[in-house]
Amino acid sequence: MDFPMFHLDWLNDRFLIAMIAIIHVLINHGIAVGFVPYITWLEQKGVRKSNPSEITNNQWDEMAERMMKVAFIVTTTVGAMTGVGIWFSAALVSPASIGSLIRVFYWGWFTEWTIFVTEVVLIMVYYLTWKNANRTLQSKLKHIKFGWYLSVFSWFTMAIIVAILGFMMDPGNWNTHHSFINGFTNPIYLPQLFFRTPTAMVVAGTFGYMLLFVFTKKNSAIRKNAIQTTAKWILFWVPFSVLGAVYYYQAMPAAMRDNMSTAVGTIEFQQYYKLLKYIILGATSSVFLVALFGWIKPEKVRWGMVFFPTLMAFSFLGIFERVREFIRKPYVIGGYMYSNLLRQEDYPLYQRDGILKYATYNSTPEITDDNRIEAGRNVFMLSCSRCHTTQGINSITYVFERMYGSFNKPLDESAMAAYIPNMHNGRTFMPPFPGNQKEAEALAAYIKFLQQSHETLEGAQTAGVVVNPLNNMNIAIQLQHTADSIKALKLAKK
Ligand code: HEC
Question: What is the pLDDT of residues 125-146, one digit of tens each?
Fold first, then answer.
């Protein structure tokens, strides 16, 4: 309401955040949080396995170092960029929710930032000093220690962010007693952390499983050994990951579980939810099987066998993130702010007076016969555009046509106007309509107009903004007040 509305009409705004965030999580969990301890563990094993006359088993050490090189390059480039990208995209698409989150988690994010900077320094130290550290046993052991420090710091950044993700799903008693600690210790925090930590280890293990084929020679003793060691790593973490998943699922409020079927498969594939669920579980268990096989018969494992489970592990993590983002709907912050960026407690006012009146950037504070379509467009922008486009992904004309089965017929305006105020009852992932009846009618007229004209909707970044004339007047009055009081102050000083 207080921010200009950025909008991507072809891609869908949620998709922009999701794309960047999912790439970031895959890298963060699979190639940093889980991968660094795995590599450090391998490095340590190299020292343990070596002859007393050498510092480390050189071939083994080289393999670990090369694997770390991949992680170093990916995390410091795409990993870091997508991290910033999340801020950038979320601030554009969802400024009000980011604003609220910053107010609650200011010190959390501040701490996370200092830890993140330390993590970047440590990863530089760890990777860039690897070769030099091999000169003496003492420096090698110190180097391994840095690997463990880096592992702890990578985990800490995740542990702080997960608190915020849990908060968005269910703020717990923060909704009644606003405080940082109440927000941080939300009911979903620990369950999600218990799930994410071992899962990151498993996913990283599969990534290492695949990489080691690149950095070891066929039929070599090193390869066989590395396969077996990696298999053990994965097998160790899988049970914790499964337990974590169960714990997390139990902690999820019932309303969120109800959203699962749409979250996994969208409305179109909802009837295949069970099937999809089994496919996902089946595909993920291939990780366990290929690890078991590697443990028993390491010489028989081929790259081709490992590739599919690795892909599945990463896809599973991607799906998990999409589902997490989806199931908290209709809220962006549970029980506090809806995904359309409007606060729940402000709803009665909007539903009585209309949302247009209160929006800061809005050209139509009052609906007239002449401005109905434009007003409908503004209502759409304020109440539907965070999740729907006009002609792109999850387009508003398409969802109505599908619902009424009227792909080749004009949409029925009055049916839509009657449906809109009740849409949250049938589809609980949608927030209630925030406006009044007149606005629902204008919105319906606009949607019908969209169907006929195929017009697309431009966000504030291309269309610019118009300040609400009502609001404008308020600002003028406020400025006058400020000017008056400054004058009064000056007089008093004299
Ligand atoms: C929080 C995000 C969100 C908001 C805000 C939202 N929707 Fe939706 N809407 C969805 C999702 C997700 C679907 C389902 C898409 C799918 O799975 O195919 C949907 C589906 C629909 C459907 C089809 C329902 C059905 O049973 O097939 C209609 C109609 C609809 N939305 C209208 C609206 C209107 C009108 C607004 C604005 C007043 C709006 N939505 C706001 C997320 C949202």
Answer: 999 999 999 999 999 999 999 9
Asked whether residue 457 is domain-assigned, the answer is yes
Q: Is residue 132 part of a domain?
A: yes
pLDDT (mean) for 322-329: 90
* 357 to 91, 479, 487: CA distances (angstroms): 24, 20, 32
User: Whose C-alpha lies nearest to ligand 1, atom 33?
Assistant: 384
Residue 3 inside a domain? The answer is no
What residue owns the CA closest to ligand 1's atom 20? 399
Residue 388 CA, ligand 1 centroid: distance in Å:
7
Nearest CA to ligand 1 atom 36: 384
Residue 357: pLDDT band with limits 50, 70, 90: very high
**pLDDT for position 292:** 97
Whole-number Å distance, alpha carbon 401 to ligand 1 midpoint, is 12
Q: Please enumerate in sequence order all residues whose Cβ is within 8 A of that of 255, keeping only pairs 6 or more positions apart, or say none.
A: 428
- Which residue's CA is the nearest one to ligand 1's atom 35? 420
What per-residue confidence (pLDDT) applies to 268?
A: 76
- Domain boundary pick from 336, 361, 376: 336
Give the count of domains, the chain: 2
- If one residue of 384, 394, 430, 436 were mutated to test the ligand 1 pocket, choosing by the most ligand atoms within 8 A of its CB, it would be 430
pLDDT classification of 475: cutoffs 50, 70, 90 = low
**Looking at ligand 1, which atom is closest to the CA of residue 339?**
1
Q: Is 39 exposed, middle or buried (0-12, 13-18, 19+ CB in 10 A)?
A: buried
CA 149 / ligand 1 centre spacing (Å): 46
What is the per-residue pLDDT across 272-290, written as a single tens digit (0 to 9) for each?
778 878 887 888 899 999 9
Examine the domain organization and report whether 348 and 332 are in the same domain: no
Chosen domain end from 336, 370, 390? 336
Catalogue the long-range contacts made by 95-104 (C-beta closer than 8 Å, 24 or more residues apart): 95/3, 95/341, 96/1, 96/2, 96/3, 96/337, 96/341, 97/168, 97/332, 97/333, 97/337, 97/341, 100/333, 100/336, 100/337, 101/164, 101/167, 101/168, 101/333, 104/167, 104/174, 104/178, 104/180, 104/183
Range of the domain at 458: 344-484
Residues framing ligand 1 (Cβ under 6 A): 262, 266-268, 329-330, 339-340, 383-384, 386-388, 394, 399-400, 402-403, 420, 423, 426-427, 429-431, 433
Q: Is the same domain home to 274 and 386? A: no
Mutate-to-test residue for ligand 1 from 14, 380, 387, 420, highest number of ligand atoms within 8 A of CB: 387
Asked if the model's pLDDT at residue 481 lies above 90, the reply is no
User: pTM for this one?
Assistant: 0.92
